[in-house]
Amino acid sequence: MTGWISSRLGALLALLLIALAGPAALAQKVAPQLVPDVSQRVVEIKFSFTGAELLLYPTAIGWDPADSQDEKDRQREAWITVQRGHAVANGLPLLACNRVGFEPAPDGEGRGAQFWGSSFVAGPQGEILARANDDSRELLIADIDMARSEAVRRIWPFLRDRRIDAYDDLLKRFRD
Can you tell me the distance from the alpha carbon of 130 to that of 103, in angstroms, rounded to the nearest whole number? Predict the structure, then answer.
């Protein structure tokens, strides 16, 4: 169910972006990350190289309601940190959208999942430009200086200065 929710959220955001920018602009400028593993660094590098100007991460991530508050805080902050790191590593603004609310366990017997919301917009250096609340739906609007990404990539060249000579093993399923 979570994959469906995440993909559905991504589709809705893509439709909104199409309405705002047009389908051609969306295809060329926005890199939606719709894979189950939001740490897929290789995918976002590919999008960055092909001209993406914005990273979009729709997610449906939450915690077990039985977790302690400290554990819940650690999980949410780790998710935010990883997303901000994607923005920094690519020198691109990032939209991280996460579901809110509760979903009961599919079997009706488990504790279910409480989704933590906290959607946000980050600039190309990972700075938080806007952040939604964690317990209700919210329309999040932020001003993004799209020209700033090029300047950031020139002064802080994480993407440009990567060690491509060390990437050979990334093309293999298993390392010998």
Answer: 26
